From TrEMBL:
Residues bound to ATP: K584
Leader peptide range in chain numbering: 1-22
An annotated Gene Ontology molecular function: protein kinase activity
Record SUPFAM superfamilies: Protein kinase-like (PK-like), RNI-like
Domain Protein kinase: start-end pairs: 554-660
Recorded family membership: Belongs to the RLP family.
Coiled coil residues, start to end: none
One GO cellular component, as annotated: plasma membrane
Any one of the GO BP annotations: defense response
Pfam family, one: LRR_1
Name of the protein in its database record: Protein kinase domain-containing protein
Membrane-spanning residues: 514-534
Amino acid sequence: MQFKIQLFFFYCCIGCFSFGFAEVGDEVSILLSIKAGLIDPLDQLQDWKLPNNGVGNNPVHCNWTGVWCNSNGAVEKLDLSHMNLSGSVSDDIQRLRSLTSLNLCCNGFSSPLPKSISNLIALKSIDLSQNFFLDSFPVGLGKAAGLTQLNASSNNFSGYLPEDLGNATLLEILDLRGNFFQGSIPGSFKNLGKLKFLGLSGNNLTGQIPPELGQLSSLESLVIGFNEFEGKIPPAIGNITSLQLLDLSDNMLSGEIPAEIAQLKNLQLLNLMCNQLSGSVPPGLGGLTQLGAYAMEVTSLSSSFSTMLSLVQLPAELSTCTSLVRVRMQNNLLSGTIPVGFGKLGKLQRLELANNSLTGQIPNDLASSASLSFIDLSQNRLQSSLPSSILSIPNLQNFMASNNNLVGQIPDQFQDCPSLSVLDLSSNHFTGSIPASIASCGKLENFGDSPALEMLNVSYNKLEGPIPANGMLRTINPDDLMGNAGLCGSVLPPCSHNSGYTSRQRTLHARHIVAGWVIGISSILAVGIAFFGVPISIQKVRIGFTSNDILACIKESNVIGMGATGIVYKAEMQRLNTTVAVKKLWRTETDIEMGSSDDLVGEVNVLGRLRHRNIVRLLGFLHNDTNAMIVYEYMQNGSLGEGFAWQTSREVAGRLGLAI
């Protein structure tokens, strides 16, 4: 009997050894099958090959690029991210039974994801982000009981959100932003009690925001902007007391902001912009002491507070919220005055109140701010003069107050504006002259070689006298001075003749000067055409294509280049007989969460006005919450490097303040 037992254990050991040997060979063949379906232009997987002496019992695949094995030689982690791979993911991937981590991020896959991937029930983490995966998202990953992270953002997935994901109750991160999902948020998501991050923004989701989301007691970030949600903001959101980031922007939400939002004591970023909200701002929001603080490194802060309101006053409580970094309430119907106190908020960097119905004065305390870098008060009904030292804010870069009823003289404080680069005071009632100290404003002066950029705009006021003679104003666009009948000199009629003109004569003479300016620029451009052989136009042209036309061309077969900042596609629209170049920018998760699109859009708006023979013309800009694409004029005959020398390009970039 004892002999039989020993014999039994002997055969068990032989069986286990044989099974392990077979499994090693099996996993090698699985990986080679996966490689066979990939397009690997950079030969990143060159070491994925059989040794000359065969597999044997040595787990050679465990040393292959991107492959990690467990102690038994079975593949438990596969990381093929950032390898410029495309092609298709083989169905054989489901045979990697021990796989706990799969990372295919940041490649060029533009095929459907195999449905069999849902058979990887040992998965704990899967990252498919920043690809072009098509069709519906595989159903069944909810069977992976240990799944904690799922990131499929920035793809082309469509269809409905998988209901079964609600069964993956250990999920902590669910990021499906930047796709084409439709329908509503599944009710099963209420079961994700450990979820910390839910990102669904930038899709085509509809219906109402389910109040069941209020049961997600561990949630820290709820990012569902840029969809088509309607109805009211559920008060149950106020139950998620762990919430730090709430982004419901760019939907069709209506009704009032629920007072329960003020219960979110840990809230650091609140974005409700571009909805159809009405009523008043809950006064309790001013008591959210963390609002505006966003931890990165030590205390690098970011906040976005904005909403669509209906003829209500700007809440005074905001000016006492010491953690605010941004106040963004532009494009609303706000009335009343600007509360005093914003200038005392030591972390406030951006104050954006444009396109409202604000009246009264610009608070004097704004001039005492040491942190403000961006102030936009344009298109309101403000009636005061400018605070005398407002242009002396040490970090102020942009000040815009156009289309108001501002009066008095432009403060003569330009010698104290080391950072000011944009000043727009157009369409007001300013009197007096343009201050001579403008010559001391280094940023404005250095910008003078590019008159196509609107750095200084004082048009349509009541200014008079000679235009100061300095480099910047000698090359200013006359459009930025027009509407001031008393101005003379520089690009306008000489002061010695201007004094005897009638109003009609001044207008005619100004038109002649403008015409001469245009003809002069046209002549320079003509010389550029003759020298470089490339036609250049400074006319505004209506673009004949739409964002859908562009998106239809974003596919692997149209890739013409790839760099550190993104992928470049050739978008050939035969229906319109038009070809453009489209650059899809890489955006990090930090970029997305910090809402850096606002700064990027502003920069693109400036770059779109640049006209230079050595700069490819920028035609347009597409973006949503997770993706950004820049549309350029397509260069048929090569790159800029073939058109002019590197030293020349550096000089051009230096004059225009660009990085190359």
